[in-house]
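Cross-check.
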Amino acid sequence: MDPMQNLNNAADALNQVAQRAGAFWDQADAQIAQRQAAYDALGANLKGVVNSELNKVFFVDAVAGDDSNAGGSTAPFKTFAAAFNALVPGGNHKIWLKRGQTHVIDASCSVQNVTLEVTSWGDTSEPEAILINSQYTAGSGPSYYSYGIYAPNSQIYFVNMHIKTCLYATDYAQSSWNGMFRQAGKIQYTIFLANCDVTLGDDHFIKGYVAGCFVNLGCYAMTIARDPAAVQTPKLWSSFGTGSLFVYSATRPAGEEWADLITVVRHADGHPANILANVSI
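Predicted model, tokenized:
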């Protein structure tokens, strides 16, 4: 065979290989671009889903709501417990309680590591929402328990509302498991009350059970009162743990000092040993 012809044939074969290789890489580039677009879309969707899950806003209507609803403004929950227990740990959430209504905590409320704002919503001509916990009894003895909030390592802000702790149905002694907020271990809370009225019934507002619990409590432009029907003398904060108290423009029950509202462990010289405060306690 003519050597020149052999060279031409080899050149043609190389050209075909080059064309096929080029087509292969073009197809590969197209597939890579298509998959990258799909990954980008999935990432954007995932980001949206995560943001949605970690930034919940739930509405509660004690009259027209339903706990089988999704909790939006047009399909609100009926109870605070349903909204609270739908929160996602690690998120920054809001629960809006319908004005002109009393919202009863009638089931256990539990979540960890959230930032939560609880406030009133609806017709501003209506009075602010009321949030109150409720009692139950257990066992054969005269012991009292209450439903409340257990939210370790969380920051919870109550704004523009009225908070009440429940009255006992009878003169039961306070058990270890009561209080609107309860601390059953070495956990911490930040609780901030702004433009709120707090009425103490027979139940504590904050109750800690162990020395290792820690509370940051802020009181801003608020009023604390006692229910005249109460038979107990509960505290705003009953705990032998440690913490800090920040107060700005807060009114206490008549004749009471902060030491009457907060459990204080003192040094021998009388100064508080467990609480750092910007007021005298």
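The longest helix spans residues 3-54. The two ends are 110 Å apart (CA to CA). Passed to J.P. for a second look.
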